[in-house]
Specification:
Length: 271
């Protein structure tokens, strides 16, 4: 197991653990305002300081981790549950009208970044975490569809697939029984990458007011609240900023480590 994978797992694990712990315990109640303690720098009582309402930043980051991870996880789940079947279907019907429609539909979604999609959804349904999940999830669908189709196409001409076709198996059965198991490693690596991008997207949407709404803590919302306080309380921006950076870095390192671990060609090259 590579050091990259271990270090990335440790970084990501810290914030995932913090999110889980926040369900049962936080140093202070993140919803309680303590005006006399506002804008305190990191100290023995408030390890990461307090914000302009006197709320404990460490507690806000713990609960904010729960929000960011939940949004990213559900959005990636949407992308996987729709994108992978579409990619398998397109590969099984390569060159057909079905393949063309799926790929051109992917191109259409790629033309609109998740932020633009979120703005469109918000204009109709209003801002909120659910709409952020839908927006990020829609953007993830073509990512998984393209990755799945590309990997599956390289397998359809292999001898074991030809043997399965000669035996009378349908395209659906071949895709499920033979194609999908052989591209699972690639999809696992891509999932970690999309998970990290989902956290960034959630933070960006919350920053502009399209993600989780107050009083639900969110890392992006914490950055938005801190932008007018940078000169007098820089810790308000630094702490959630570091949380986003370290979590995304950890997930990306995990993706690199998993790629090295699961790809036998890379193991041979490094050996």
């Amino acid at each position: 197991m590579s050091r990259t994978l271990i270090f990335g797992a440790l970084l990501a694990g810290i914030f995932i653990t913090a999110a889980l712990v926040s369900f049962v315990w936080t140093p202070f109640d993140p919803a309680v305002l303590d005006i006399p303690a506002r804008l305190q720098p990191p100290n023995g009582t408030h390890l990461l300081g307090t914000d302009h309402f006197g709320r404990d930043i460490a507690s806000l980051i713990m609960v904010g981790a729960r929000t960011s991870i939940a949004v990213a996880l559900l959005a990636v789940g949407i992308g996987m549950s729709l994108g992978i079947p579409l990619g398998l279907w397109a590969a099984a019907r390569r060159g057909s009208l079905v393949d063309e429609v799926i790929m051109r539909g992917n191109d259409l979604v790629f033309a609109f970044p998740s932020l633009v999609i979120a703005i469109l959804i918000t204009a109709v349904f209003g801002a909120g975490a659910v709409n952020a999940i839908i927006a990020i999830g829609i953007f993830n669908i073509p990512v998984f569809a393209r990755i799945t189709r590309g990997a599956a196409l390289s397998l359809w001409e292999r001898d074991f697939i030809l043997a399965a076709r000669v035996s009378g198996k349908s395209g659906l059965r071949i895709s499920v029984e033979h194609i999908l198991p052989n591209i699972t490693n690639l999809l696992i690596v891509q999932t970690t990458i999309q998970f990290s991008l989902g956290i960034l997207a959630e933070a960006a949407l919350s920053y502009v007011g399209l993600g989780a709404q107050p009083p639900t803590p969110s890392w992006g919302r914490m950055l938005a609240d801190a932008q007018t306080m940078v000169s007098i309380a820089p810790h308000m921006a630094l702490m959630p900023g570091f949380a986003i950076i370290l979590t995304v870095l950890g997930l990306n390192l995990m993706g690199d480590g998993l790629r090295d671990l699961l790809d036998p060609r890379l193991r041979v090259t490094r050996t």
